[in-house]
From TrEMBL:
Xref: NCBIfam families: PRK11617.1
Source organism: Hymenobacter nivis
Alphabetical keyword list: Cytoplasm, DNA damage, DNA repair, Endonuclease, Hydrolase, Magnesium, Metal-binding, Nuclease
Highest taxon, organism lineage: Bacteria
Protein name: Endonuclease V
GO cellular component terms, A-Z: cytoplasm
PANTHER family: ENDONUCLEASE V (PTHR28511)
Amino acid sequence: MAYFRPPGPPPDPALVRSLTAQQHDMRQRVRAEPLAQEPRLIGGCDSSFPTPETILSVFVVLKFPSLELVEKVYSYAPVTMPYVPGFLSFREADNVVQAFAKLENQPDVIMVDGHGIAHPRRVGIAAHLGVLLDVPTFGVAKQKLTGSFTEPGPEKGNITPLIDAKTGELIGQVIRSKDKVLPLFVSPGHRCDQATATRLTLACLRGYKLPEPTRLADYWAEEFKKEVR
């Protein structure tokens, strides 16, 4: 997800406590499990902030494994949540759900531009969204949020684990998606496991750094911004 990070005063402590409690509740509901069957349709979603006051959330749906584009939708709305570090998913989730509601073809699994459980409290936007929608989700992020890792080899397909330094827990995998480009950080969200998240990410690569579901969501976000300006 492309976040707008405005400067400003420290967040309200009461708001932080409320968001922390909500994340704790969602964390208890997150389930790691393989998909019941191979997906027929895979979704991709991304959010961006065309202005400090607005958010644009995009969903694309592709056939799997051909990755033929089936559908694309967006939701554009005012931002209702202030910027609070560590709780960025709350700025996006409602609008992403609004975009999802516009889909005529519901995906069997959703690839989210952002983190799943590779988050300090294990509830990044992919996990957050999965719990809200009760749909299998996983995250593919361009930057690390938490954890430690060894740089994967420079060739496409090299993978290393992303580990919680305090607990030793596997919270994601670091994937070289294209030769000699910065790696991606892949983690399960809800109703998905790491093996599935990694396998689907690799299956959706088509010569770009980003896998097709999130790459096309990002592409169409730029196109849809022309409609809302």
